[in-house]
Structure formats: C-alpha cells, structure tokens
Amino acid sequence: MGKKENLVILILAFLPFVMVIGNSMFIPILPIIERDLHISSAEAGLLLTAFSIPAAIIIPFIGYFSQKFGAKKMIITSLLFILIGSLISSLAPFIGESRIVFNCLIVGRAIQGFGAGGTAPLAMTIIGNVFLGTSRSKALGMMELFNGLGKMISPLLGVTAVFFTWYSAFWFYFILSLTILLLIQTYIDSDSKGIDLSILKYFHSVGGIFKREYRWIFPVYFTGASIMFILFGLFVYFSYEIEQVYLIESIEKGVLFSIPLGGLTIASYFSGRFIGAKNENLQKIVVISFISMVTVLIFGMILHSFTVLFIIITVFSIGAGLLLPCCNLLVTSNISKEERGVVVSFYGMFRFLGVAFGPLIYSQWMYMEWWMFMYSFFILIIVGVSLYLGFMTVTKRETTISPFSS
Questions:
Q1: Long-range contacts of range 275-278, CB-CB < 8 Å, 24 or more positions apart?
Q2: Residue 132: φ, ψ to 5°
Q3: Rounded to an integer, what distance in angstroms lies between the CA atom of residue 79 and that of residue 85?
Q4: Number of H helices and number of E strands within the chain?
Q5: 1-188 placed in CATH 3.20.20.80
Q6: Residues 376 and 386 sit within 8 Å (Cβ to Cβ)
Q7: Do 325 and 21 form a contact (C-beta atoms < 8 A)?
Q8: Which of 148, 176, 190, 172 is nearest to 8 (CA)?
C-alpha cells in the first residue's frame, strides 16, 4: 500500500478509538464527579448510560443515512455531534448549581452518544468501499487494533485528566474529535452522493437483505455480539476477583488489565495482516481462536487460582482479538457495495449490545463461578456451530468469501 492509503487507514482507525474512549475514559473519574456535584452513585452512572443508549439507537439508522447522504458526510456529521456534546459538557460546570450542571452533562453526553454510535460502522463502510483484498483485511485489522488501544489507554486518559480538573476530559474528547474531523475532511475522498430512499423503503430493503442473506449474516452478527458479551462480562468478573478476593488495587490492577487487553489488540492487528487475500488463512484463524477460547473456559470450570484466572482472561482476549477481524471481513466482503452500509451498521449495533449486556449479566453470574464458565462455554459452542453453518453458506457461492471482491 502507498503512503496515502496508509494515512487513510490510520485516520479511519481513529474512529473506533473515539467511540471506545467516549465511555470508558469517564469510568475512573465518576467518583470525583459524584463528590463535586453532590449526586448519588446511580446518578453518576447515568453519565455512562446517557452515552450508551443514544449510541445503540442511532446505529441501525447509520446505514440509511450513509446510503442517502454518503459515508463521509455522515462521519463528519457524527463528529460534529460529538463536538457539540463535548462543548456542552465541558461548559456545564460553569453554568450554575450542581443540579443544573448535572442535567446539562446528561444532555451533552446524550448528544455525544448520538455522534459516537456511527463512527466505527461508517469507518468499516468506507474501508469496504475503498479497499480490496489484502488492503481491506489490513485496514479492518487496524480498526480492531485502535479499538483495543482505546480500551487499554482510556482509563489512563481519564485519570490523567483528573490532574487538571474532571471536565478537562471533555476538552480532550473535543480536541481529539476536531482533529480527526479536519483530517477526514482533508484526506478522505468524497464518496457517492447516495440514493434518494425513504426511511420506509430503507427498512423494507433491510428486511429484504436479511431475508436473502440471513443464513450467514445472523451467524456473524451473533458471533460479534456474543464474543463482546463474554469478553466484557469476564472483565467484570476479573475486576471483582482481583480486587475483592486477591486484594490487588491501584496501579497493579491497571497493569493486570492492560496485559489481556494488549493481547487482544496485538492479536487483532496480526489477524488482519495474516488473513490477507487467502480464504484458507481466515479459516485457520477462526479455528485457532475458537479452540483457544473454548479450552480456557473449560479450565475455568475445573481450576481456581489467580494464575489460572489471569491466563483464562488473557488467552480468551487473544482469541477474541483473532476472531473479530474475521467477522469484520465477512461482513464487509460478502455484500454489495450499495448494501454494505446497512449490513455494517447493524453489525455494529449487535456488537454494542454485547458490550452493554455482558457486564450486566456477568455481575449476576459471577457469584456462581462454575455455572458462569459453563454458560460461557455453551454460548461459545453455539456461536461456533452457527458461524460454521454461516461460513459454509458463503463458501457454497462461487465467490468463496470474496474479500477479495468489491
């Protein structure tokens, strides 16, 4: 790939980074906001919920908007929403008494969520439209790399912001989003003007796509959602265990989290590069990832120690990092260019739902550890079977997974 292609990939890869840090950067500073505004812990948690719900709501509509107006225009619009929301949130502390400040923060966070929800799916749409073959798989792997980097460093960014003031985190989010917007405006070529399609016709076309392609689309959606569901659920369990059982806190806890997340990030990057333009490589990665994840879940049912737990989390993270670029490639490579935005946006929604529900469910399951690992094991087996059937559906076509086609 040339220098310009590499630069375009790098710019697009920052979009999932923006989406990830939009919530996780604020997690470590919630107690400070709570004390400063004299609000309850539940109200402080609403600052995360106010971001997540609008993001999940907007994702299914991103495909429609990208078809109608073009993906580049929608990325710029999404970033403008983030800028407006960040500006409202960063100025809120200067408005008045704490209740008014809190309400303004909720409004600002909701606007941020509406913008952030479409960033990663739109980036995948542009990658699917612009790149082919090896370039496409490398670009999708780079997206997962920056997604992982966002997960790794966002708590550190939040803690760093506290050295100034808690609302400086919103200024950082504003500056980052503005920089990416200017880079996209400068270096990303305009795509097609889109098609004049009503919202009803859009959802009718969505139904037609799912009816025609459901044999492979839903297995891939289910895989993406389930892997994120288990992964984030296990991280909640891991956080509880290392702090409450093994009494590990502060910097040591952060380092322990960074290792499996680092493994996920590195695995995502090399998975995208290894797949290249070879269908056989994709199959190998999928098999290796499932074997590694299933194996460590079995160990979780029969062995209990800090070392075993750390290995389980790390190996599962690496397996997830290997698998997710494969799902990304399947989603972007087996649908026409005109329908790609729709399919990718719903894929992003399913993954987002996995992230949303994993911590909620596992916070209940973690009190019965054996069953938690058993449930995870069975979910993964079902995922493997469904993905295999979906994969076989695709390979029966003459295109043989054509990543590698438009």
A1: 275/137, 275/141, 275/325, 275/326, 275/329, 275/403, 276/133, 276/134, 276/137, 276/138, 277/133, 277/134, 277/137, 277/403, 277/404
A2: -130, 160
A3: 10
A4: 14, 0
A5: no
A6: no
A7: no
A8: 190
What span, in angstroms and rounded, lies between the C-alpha atoms of 179 and 390?
40
23's CB contacts (< 8 A; 6+ apart) are 48, 51, 52
Under 8 Å between Cβ of 332 and 224? no
Contact 11, 184 (CB under 8 A): yes
What distance lies between CA 28 and its chain's CA centroid?
19
d(CA 252, CA 257) in angstroms, rounded, equals 9
**What's the whole-model pTM score?**
0.71
| CA 397 to centroid of chain Cα atoms | 29
Query: CA–CA separation, 337 vs 314, rounded Å?
Result: 36
- CA-closest candidate to residue 139, choices 11, 260, 286: 11
The CATH superfamily of 204-399 is MFS general substrate transporter like domains (1.20.1250.20)
Q: CATH topology of 1-188 equal to that of 204-399?
A: yes
Residues of the chain falling short of pLDDT 70: 1-2, 27-28, 30-31, 41-42, 45, 190-197, 243, 249-251, 253-254, 276-280, 336-338, 341, 393-406
